[in-house]
């Protein structure tokens, strides 16, 4: 059957455009003559030529404070040792990265950092991926001569999504810069000076009371265990060990292309069968796929779009499946809350259905069901605790959320050998049946493409829309635009990922730009770049952007292998409507699958109502 591709227009403000090459300079590094672009720093130039300079505070293009001083080098003509990450190259420069003075200075710098550090490495969740630990080994620090003088500070874990341990913070400010430059939130800052410096929300607030969007990008970029996810592994083990409980687990589409990285597999390796086998080996009673609920979300959201195009609601319709983005909207753009789709996220839809439809179908007591979600996102932990997502009976849709990293820990704790796990594990029915549309939900642009595939079929006919692909909304550029014809009218679409790009897109709308449907994802790249995804060890040099690209390619390869690629073709979704919901946007569907949102202050003064953390 003929495949139709809808093309879009490139967003000149965000898509890369060709630029003239910068002039080259010649310099010498460790007796090797090399070339580099004018303006490049010593660290990047050395690494491009196979010479490793250790760093801690440096993130290329994001964080370049030069504050950790681990990257010092000798430069002829300079009396002091400059930080290589903030020192630009120049013509004729002579750099030495491995002299006795450099090695001695780096060891002392790392030793000074460790005097402030709470070194509980055996029980730290970042032990295997701790950059401070790796740098200490890299500079040859094998004994401490200085006494530990860390400031005694309380571990902050009074929220459902993140733990802050100030005693492990090395003040590198990477979290601050990621929050400000990548996400555009600016929820973190440095307070105090010298040894008294504390990194965190302003006015010593906890993240739960600050205008934090809970996205977890700060966790991904923290080099130590100072920032980690709020862990629920022990609570989940307790539920599994309780003979009176039935524990139902769901797994997000992104997990199947990222979990393998936790066990040394290349980025983008598809491990769906092993993932299901691991969940059964851990002891979960039932294993469902969040992709089923993604298909269901498409059905509800596509019909919601068609209704709004007919004048029944605010335009543009904005997707609401990313809880980090939703919280960003609540804090910074509450005037757009009426534009948000009222659909719950797929995680919450499936949780609600497990405790209603599935419980009734199987004759189970909802009070004895425990729902666990394996998600790529720390914001999902916050979302599960939202009071709006608690039923009239006082039950949460999702009881516990585990990140990709937490699931990997559980697999190891269960004594499962990843390499020998069966690769043919299958999800349970009926909430495990899924289409290709559900798989691509995890990539930026995937929600949009999945919704438009179904909306196109509903309006233009099954035969015309049978193999439509919307490649114009794919890709890792910050903002992408496209147009499609629906019901005889041109529908303008836009996709943004990372909330700094969301800010730009919404400001564009406030300035008069017209769109009909927006997909906004809170994290760079969408769920494949979520704050709960694997943190690769310091020895893996693959850039994060390249890992995200491989993960996205894997998702679209899954989509292409599925016999059914559109949400409305899912037989289990059709059966759900026939047996239980009636039709999309029915009264029952709205009660179970839809929600409301809460305007929040940009600068909160009072703590929100506490939600039990189990």
Model description:
With 614 residues, the protein is an alpha/beta fold. It has 3 domains: 27-112, Ubiquitin-like (UB roll), CATH 3.10.20.740; 127-233, Alpha-Beta Plaits, CATH 3.30.70.20; 247-399 and 431-531 and 551-593, Fe-only Hydrogenase (Larger Subunit), Chain L, domain 3 (3-Layer(aba) Sandwich). 32% of the residues lie in helices and 12% in strands. It has helices spanning 42-48, 100-115, 131-138, 174-182, 217-221, 233-241, 272-282, 290-309, 323-332, 346-362, 379-384, 404-413, 436-439, 446-460, 499-510, 544-561, 571-581, 587-593; strands spanning 24-29, 32-37, 74-75, 94-96, 162-164, 189-191, 198-200, 227-229, 246-251, 286-289, 317-318, 369-375, 400-403, 479-486, 489-497, 517-521. The strands form 5 sheets. A 4-stranded mixed sheet has the order 2-1-4-3, covered by helices on one side. α8 (290-309) packs across α10 (346-362) and α8 packs across α14 (446-460). The longest helix has 20 residues, at 290-309.
